Amino acid sequence: MADNSTSPEQFSTLPISIPPLPSYPVRATHYLYLRRNAPKIATPDDSRSLYLANIPADSTEAHFRAVFAHLVGAGRFEGVSFEQDKADAKLSHEPAQAERLAKHHKKRKREDEELQHKEEEDAAKLPDTWSRPLHRSGSSAVALLADEKSVDLVLKAVKKLHKSKKYPTWGEGVKDGVPAFGAQWLKAHNKLSYPGNDVVQAVVDAYFVVFNRKEEEAHQLAKRLRNEPDEDGFVMVTRGGRSAPARRDEAEEAKQRMLDKQQKKKDETQDFYRFQMRERRKAEQMDLLKKFDEDRKKVQAMKERRGRFRPDA
């Protein structure tokens, strides 16, 4: 496949040599496409990250670390985030009332408190049943490098590969610790699918600790919101009812904001369409004619009442 780095998408083609396997004893070539990362929502790390498309199905962070070390040397690669990591649905520990109230109010927490809650939520997750995940064909990822200079070096090294034909070998330089596929992988999956009773009990206990904590937080938040009117002057109805009416000055301020909002909306919609402008001009013209006719009648009545006035000679 030819290098398409001059295409409108500015993708560069990185050929990767796939070593022969016992099931397929033929050396193959996989083509990886990369460019500078430019997401729709910008992040501080965009300038030092690369967008990778068509990654191999058995990709891991260790594999990409070895590939980038082959291109620009060690120390330039920091990490990689796969498309599957973002798409995976996270288990929610939020009770129904907590999820509803969280949309209206977000509580600020201390850093140590957030860390403790994160540890509790991690302990409430079920253990993984796969020792090594697989990615669907044509998946993408974002590689994070040390700096912007490293991105330039990688793109230059990819261009040089097409001249030297010394493509990086997939899996070469990967250190021990990456689980292998095959029968061992399936055996590990079968074993992980049936954790011990003590592991399951620990996860269930941790889950209900998090659930009860969030439910209590939602109850306290609902209790506090019973007396707080929103911007339109209404008090949100929560479970348990209201304990006291809202303050009069707050209700009046909210009512005034609502009236101002309605007036602003009315002003914005006035004379919005052409027929509205035409009708407005026609109404103004009819009003002028009506006033002119009324004034003419008043003048005529004054003349009749006055009669013919003749001053004495």
What's the short version?
The chain is α+β, with helices and mostly antiparallel strands.
Written account of the structure:
This protein is 47% helix and 11% strand. The protein has nine helices and five strands, in the order βββαβαααβααααα. The N terminus is likely disordered. The N and C termini lie far apart (120 Å). It has a five-stranded antiparallel β-sheet with strand order 1-2-3-5-4. It has 313 residues and is α+β, with helices and mostly antiparallel strands.
List keywords for this structure.
5 strands, 313 residues, 11% strand, 5-stranded antiparallel beta sheet, alpha+beta, single chain
Which blocks of ≥5 consecutive residues have pLDDT under 50? 1-8
Count of DSSP-assigned helices: 9
Largest sheet: 5 strands, antiparallel
Strand portion = 5-15%
What is the average of the pLDDT values? 79
Helix content: 40-55%
Care to count the β-strands? 5
Within the largest sheet, what's the order of strands? 1-2-3-5-4
Helix/strand order, N-terminal first: EEEHEHHHEHHHHH
Shape: elongated
Please specify the SSE layout and strand pairing.
Layout: E1 12-18, E2 28-36, E3 49-53, H1 61-72, E4 77-82, H2 83-87, H3 96-102, H4 111-123, E5 140-145, H5 148-164, H6 183-192, H7 197-225, H8 248-269, H9 274-306
Antiparallel strand pairs: 1-2, 2-3, 3-5, 4-5
Helix pairs in contact: 3-7, 4-7
